Amino acid sequence: MKMLRHNAVTSAILGALWMVVLSTTIAIVMSFATGDPFRPHILLSLIWGGSAGVILGRDLGGRIGAVLVAVAIAAACLLGLGPLLVGVEASAFSASVAAILLALSFVWSSVLILNDLPTGGLTRHEFEGAVIRFLTGFGYIFFTAIVLIPFYVMVMTSLKNQAELMQNPLDFSIDLSQGWALFRSYDELFTQFNFGTYLFNSFTISVLTVFITLAFAIPGAYAVARLRFRGRAAFSRSILLIYMVPMIVLALPIYIGFSMTGLRNSLWGIVMIYPVTTIPVALYMLQGYFRGLPAEIEEAGLMDGLSRLAVIWKITLPLSLPALASVSLYIFMIAWNEFLLAFMLLDDPSRFTLTRGIASLNSSEIPRQHLMAGSVVATVPIMALFLGLERFMTKGLTAGSVKG
């Protein structure tokens, strides 16, 4: 281990590994974006990355040295001797973009990873710091790829026509010269497949589920957090027991019960059953937050003559807005994405939710681009809602973790 804790050795190893990561990433990105063949050369990536890592780690030549390293990497890629190999079918423009992107991203990120490493031997802290920075960068790239690649494939497929998909189903580039014709699948979704109704149904059901859940979860969570009654501890520990039973086990009894009562194929039936799955998790999340609120504030309200309900309405709820926002968002996402119950209980297309409507598109008679377009329509609203309210969700989920 002591042999590794040397500037030259550490820089060479981390530089080589980082070049493999970046060359693979750039190859995937450019292949998806342009449809041209790009692939990393692992051996050349190790050689170029190790050599460049030593130069950048020892800060040889300063900024001029870094620029020369970037130029050398880009030139090697264009000549077919670099970490990134370009197919003969690729255009000169896409090859140049890939080479420059790889060179600049490697030099810039390597300087950050190998920043402040002294010449010669490294202390354990300095060595571990460089390794952690490398692993952090790798983690960002890896998890970003896991999230973005499926979504990118989904979006690009939705913009294709049937002829393009049949010709090359793995070509995820787009022809911008088609203009608005790219969005014909989305137009057909709303004009031929009634997706506007599905959107309205899902939105209505999700909003009603949020209100019903909060109406039951707020007083329940407050009672568990503040009031003293027999069985309180057992109730608090058993709130999430319903999640120990898979929903598929309950699906058949629910189906039979709803069929006997006439609630099957009814949006009101869906609104009634969804809170059963969301109230426990809302109770669990809110009780932790309520416990973290200072009890003295509520006691002061009671001493001023407020009733318990008035204390909840005027004191507890205003202080709990971050938690309520996060719980509401979480419940909305559960209701929006729920599929099993909607699939079992809804048969009338006019009452389909988005998830049920997307399932109806999964047919050999319906082009695949319509299925992907439906998935985009279902994903984008909830993604925008999450990104817009993410700070409230983070604050609400963590605020109740520490009491006082």
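That was protein one. Protein two is written in the same sequence-then-structure order:
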Amino acid sequence: MDFVKNLDTDMSLAILSCLDDPSDLVRASAVSRSWRHFVIKQSLSKNLCLKLLHQLTSMDRIIETTSNEESSESSSSLLEEDTTRDHRVYALLAKGCTSSPIQSCIHDAIAASSTDRLPAESIFNTLDERDRVGRTPSYWSSAGHHNPSVPETLLYQLKADLCVITQLSVHPFQVYYYPGSPICSSHYVRFRFGHLDNHSQDKNNYVWTYTSQQFALAQENRLQNFMLPEPVLCIGGYLLVEFLGRVQLCDADDLYYICVTHVKAMGRSLAKSFGVVDPDELGKFGLKVLSYSDPQEMNDKEEEAGPSVLRPMRNQNP
């Protein structure tokens, strides 16, 4: 029995709304013309997207890279065209947010709230997972403080305007060349996602649209993983790592330091498919569609082509 034809709209909607895999919803829309029309008209792809990532409720417009010429069609035809476009966009979004490969999403290090010695203890060292490069220690160190409650922050740019982050990791640095080999961690770590404030005269001002809970950071020389309670859509492409509470007192100067070997953010990058346009201080933003190609297929082709020889590498072995 074709329940879309034979049942009332509410019952059919209740049944198809149980689909929580974007691929299943795409398959449902391919069953027949009536099923496709129903899926599109009832905005099922959009509803699934909002269920998977509630941050998408902040999206207030969709922008396509190819603008259509002015049309003389009726308003009803234009509305149907917009509804079909929205279905395509949300279906692609849902698939990208759930089936794109999970990868490291940090693109570059931007700034640290303080640094003890530049360039030897720069934030850029935290892009490398090693605690030494050759015979040289590789880590970031804050400036020292008498007050152990003074926080520190590290700011990173992600690989895309839109990234779905699932897990973050921090590796405290063990000062192996110092007597006692102390580990200079913080008591807690917290993560924020956001974007540049395009409406501020200060070019270094950011709007944080998501703030995680505080995670306890163990005073241990290992990469410590922090799984977010649910996947989080980072809108705007920036990550702020906050270190709260200093642990290690340096005997040489009686100051507290925080030292970090490596920071990692794991998730799904939507760089090839979408961009963010004009995000504001309230979190509203426009979604720019860069490509309707399947993000998984684009990634597979990129892997077949191999890594780019032009990609810069930091901290290479001498």
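The chain has two domains: 3-67+75-99, 103-280. Keep this in mind for the problem set.
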